[in-house]
Design brief:
This protein has 240 residues and is mainly alpha-helical. It is built from 9 helices and 2 strands; from the N terminus they run H-H-H-H-H-H-H-H-H-E-E. Helix content is 64%, strand content 7%. The protein has a two-stranded antiparallel ribbon with strand order 1-2.
Length: 240
Amino acid sequence: MINKFTIVFLSLIFSFFEAKTQTADSINAKFVIKKAIIPAVLIGAGLLLNNDQLEQDFQTDLRNKVGNDFEFSIDDYAQYAPIAEMYLADVMGVKAKNHWFDQTKYLIISNIITSSITHGLKNLTLKTRPNGADFSFPSGHTTFAFTNATVVYNEFRQTAPVLAYSGYVFAFTTASFRMLNNKHWLSDVLVGAGIGILVTDLVYYFEPLKNFNPFKKTENLTFVPYKNVEGFGIYFSYKF
């Protein structure tokens, strides 16, 4: 059954498209709508499946196939892989759409927006996870992974297509193992993926803080953030 939340969310999506069409003089509405088709389908499908018996049966069958004791935490690490890919490509000199600082800027902005949406929805819906824990909808891991993958796609789709699409392999792996590990339902990962793709594409379209780059003239200097069990840090490289 489609609940009131689903109807409201779908209405917001259609309202978004209508608003973009009406403001075609200021932005390329057709381009925005084209970029929004895939994430809109993902979000729409997720909303239709949300709390439906179909996704409950799917999750039960999935766990029966892998075993009810199955757990493999690759999803905790795969979500970061697109970020590592991007900065490694920068260090290796692979041509990207933007300067490394702009990449970082759009990565941070995209993740701030998507995480805010995701956590807001978690607190609004209060959906129970398959394993009985709280805050299931949508999947934060999946949102984060697809946000990062979409940043990589936007940066390298013109210059290194294989690299550009490879981020989605890690994102798909993250989403799949969130379900295999009994942490999320199918609707959780579908909506999470849609949010990550849609918001990031919009960030790259509007390019917030476009002219803010204090490192623009330091092409030989690259900072690479990293994360390990001890916390966060930064590596940097300089080409002489």
